[in-house]
Design goal:
about 50% helix, binds nicotinamide-adenine-dinucleotide, Dehydroquinate synthase-like, alpha domain, two-stranded antiparallel sheet, alpha/beta, Rossmann fold, single chain
């Protein structure tokens, strides 16, 4: 049996250099900045990561021209504009932090063209995608631009040791969502599917292990590798139903990004699975369970994550206000047609924290 009969696809391989390994933020970062000829660097780090960032930059402190710490979730346009002002005179941007920090660096690169060196401290994966996002008046706009793709990424699992278990779990499931959705997103290819499958395997191994022992470096390494693969698969395959839902909800109600993904993913997987048997088979093998939607829902419960969007403060009547906005952006080749009624049922289940197959959730 051939795996992919009549295979035909287009795959865009993205440039970018990755240095991966324990201790690399201390041993490799300066050389990476040298390679970018970065002499007047704008350092971007969120308030909680600023001390770590200053410590990592101490060996080349004379090259830090400015530091910007006003990092906000979903990159509000006002914060982006202040970061752009802080970049005046800089010749490179160094971001040290999670997806919001990388996103702020991308906002700067979008208008200035400055090269980015990224040191991720969560599993968001933004550092290997050319996707930027900005939020204005409760509406999140995203776009793709090669200028925002970091030129170099330094992945150091040691930096993720401080990520608390709930954040690790939510962020790891955000990465899982990149992988799962890569199987039906509009620009999927055998290349993105292969990367996504390996990402699922690494994340499925790392998530429970980190929850049991957050200092388990082998598990932290699995998760960070999984996050890299997840971002790579997402960058190639693009956004499908899951990302469109999370994007509209996140922008409209300022929901926490990773938790929103963790809650919605099992529901989108359960919705699409009957119409995407090949994707389901490959996701199941990589995940190591025959029913990955139920598995991911149970995993979220075991990791102590909120299971319903209502636990994030969303009201039930908020759901109707986003239906049309989501329907307008769902890719037309989603495996299962998305009707208003189908989407309402899916969103309601995700809001209530129901089991993805409709049964009651017991925690
Ligand atoms: P985040 O960057 O907002 O970080 C979440 C929290 O984790 C923050 O409080 C931060 O201070 C803390 N934190 C980060 N690293 C830590 C560490 N090592 N130890 C302890 N605390 C740490 O959240 P996120 O989930 O990483 O990123 C979400 C953002 O990234 C969203 O805006 C999302 O849209 C964006 N994103 C973009 C892409 C893309 O391709 N453009 C992909 C994924 C996510």
């Amino acid at each position: 049996m051939t795996l992919l009969p009549n295979t035909a696809f287009t795959h865009t391989a993205l440039p970018g250099r990755v240095v991966f390994g324990r201790g690399t933020a201390r041993t490799a970062l300066a050389a990476e900045l040298d390679a970018l000829q970065a002499r007047r660097i704008l350092l971007i780090a969120g308030p909680a990561e600023a001390a770590l960032a200053r410590e990592l930059c101490a060996p080349f402190a004379d090259r830090i021209a400015a530091t910007f710490t006003e990092v906000r979730p979903h990159v509000p346009l006002e914060a982006a504009e202040r970061a752009r002002q802080a970049a005046a005179g800089a010749d490179a941007v160094l971001s040290i932090g999670g997806g919001s920090t990388t996103g702020t660096a991308k906002a700067v690169a979008l208008t200035t063209g400055l090269p980015i060196a990224a040191v991720p401290t969560t599993y968001a994966g933004s550092e290997v995608t050319p996707v930027w996002g900005l939020t204005q008046d409760g509406r999140k706009t995203t776009g793709t631009d090669p200028r925002v793709l970091p030129r170099t990424v330094v992945y150091d699992p040691d930096l993720t040791l401080t990520l608390p278990v709930p954040l690790s779990a939510a962020s790891g499931l955000n990465a899982m969502a990149h992988c799962v959705e890569a199987f039906w997103a509009p620009h999927r290819s055998p290349v993105s599917s292969a990367v996504a499958a390996e990402g699922i395997r690494a994340l499925a191994a790392g998530l429970p292990a980190v929850a049991t022992d957050p200092t388990d470096l082998a598990a932290r390494t699995d998760l960070l590798l999984g996050a890299y693969l997840a971002g790579t698969a997402f960058a190639a395959a693009g956004s499908g139903l899951h990302h469109k839902i999370c994007h509209v909800l996140g922008g409209a109600f300022d929901l926490p990004h990773a938790e929103t993904h963790a809650i919605v993913l099992p529901h989108v997987l359960a919705f699409n699975a009957p119409a995407a048997p090949d994707a389901l088979a490959r996701i199941s093998i990589a995940y190591g369970r025959p029913d990955p939607a139920a598995g991911l829902h149970d995993l979220g419960l075991r990791l102590g994550l909120p299971t319903g969007l209502r636990e994030l403060g969303l009201r039930e009547d908020d759901l109707d206000t986003v239906l049309d906005g989501i329907l307008a952006v769902v890719p037309s080749d989603n495996p299962r047609p998305v009707t208003a009624a189908g989407l309402r049922t899916l969103l309601h289940a995700a809001w209530a924290g129901a089991h993805p197959h409709g049964e009651e959730t017991t925690s």
